[in-house]
From TrEMBL:
Entries under InterPro entries matching the protein: Cyt_c-like_dom (IPR009056), Cyt_c-like_dom_sf (IPR036909), Cytochrome_c-type_DH (IPR051459)
PANTHER family: ALCOHOL DEHYDROGENASE CYTOCHROME C SUBUNIT, BLL4482 PROTEIN-RELATED
Coiled-coil boundaries: none
SUPFAM superfamilies: Cytochrome c
Keyword Iron: yes
Entry-linked PROSITE patterns: CYTC
Species per Swiss-Prot/TrEMBL record: Marivita hallyeonensis
Protein name according to UniProt: Cytochrome c, mono-and diheme variants
The keyword Heme is annotated on this UniProt entry: yes
Keywords annotated in UniProt: Heme, Iron, Metal-binding
Every Cytochrome c domain range: 38-146, 187-293
Single GO MF annotation: electron transfer activity
Length: 294
């Protein structure tokens, strides 16, 4: 009986150790960052393409106020409501006391400076594919933005989803930097893939999710329920979206569809961002969309 208890205790200890290993917070690989010099101008492009202000500026912000990343935007989901934090340069309530390594680890690994998991409402699963140079450039641009002392609001999520350690299991299942579309035979398609799959994180809304909230990559860009519970996010696959590449590029610039409708809701923010990018970037996204399978 004593031997059985010993083996049982050993088994429980092994299970606990495995659980701690799987759920640990793993930092980003940052060894190459220190050798790079940040380009503020490109960092601004990365900031705009990534939609940082769309979540982290105050909901009523306009003009220059959209560069004050005070947080507060609420993101509804099946797991609760997540609230975007203050990521301004305030050292107390924002990220002003972070290092470049802290920033890269948050952005690409979803881990805070104190070693806690961020919830994947922060689209680090997409940003995981961001290049070292773009990370450094974005950080250089962030240094130019104003500080704001507004405290971050807490998330509104209940048990068991409020157990941050469990996010490590989610990351084991879903966090990687693999491309969804692997065949990109031209520089334009390569740029479009990077914009769609990484910076603009389009798949986070336009791709359905499984029961654990992971993207169903087998149904990439096939449309999904709106997390707010109102309607659906449309499919962008060629069998559903019949627009030409020129139509897509024009929509990203102006918000107007070929049917004379206009972008609304969160897509209006996306158009605001893409309208500030180059025409070649909008064309690259359109080319990628038209090259999707199905």
């Amino acid at each position: 009986m004593r031997r059985g208890l010993i083996w049982s205790a050993a088994g429980l200890a092994a299970v606990a150790a495995a659980g701690l290993f799987v759920t640990r917070a793993v930092p980003d690989e940052t060894d190459g960052l220190a050798a790079l010099t940040g380009d503020v101008a490109n960092g601004e492009v990365v900031f705009i393409a990534s939609g940082c202000a769309s979540c982290h500026a105050a909901d009523d912000a306009e003009g220059d106020a959209k560069r004050v990343l005070t947080g507060g935007h609420r993101l509804a989901s099946d797991f609760g409501t997540f609230v975007a934090p203050n990521i301004s340069m305030d050292a107390t309530h924002g990220i002003g006391d972070w290092t470049l390594d802290d920033f890269a680890t948050a952005l690409r690994a979803g881990v805070s400076p104190d070693g806690q998991h961020y919830y994947p409402a922060f689209p680090y699963a997409s940003y995981a594919g961001m290049t070292d140079q773009d990370v450094v450039d974005l950080w250089a641009f962030m240094q130019t933005l104003p500080a704001d002392a507004t405290p971050s609001a807490p998330h509104d999520i209940g048990f068991p989803f409020n157990i941050r350690r469990a996010v490590g299991v989610w990351k084991t299942l879903y966090l990687n930097d693999d491309w969804v579309v692997t065949d990109v035979p031209s520089p334009e398609l390569e740029r479009g893939r990077y914009l769609v799959e990484v910076l603009a994180h389009c798949g986070e809304c336009h791709t359905p999710r499984d029961a654990l909230g992971g993207l169903d990559r087998a149904a990439w860009m096939a449309g999904a329920p709106n997390p707010s519970g109102r309607g659906t996010i449309p499919a962008l696959t060629p069998d559903e979206l019949t627009w030409s590449a020129a139509d897509v590029a024009y929509y990203l610039e102006t918000g107007f569809t070929p049917d004379f409708d206009s972008a609304g809701g969160s897509m209006a923010d996306v158009v605001t961002n893409f309208a500030q990018l180059s025409a070649s970037d909008r064309q690259a996204v359109a080319a990628y969309i038209k090259a999707l399978p199905r």
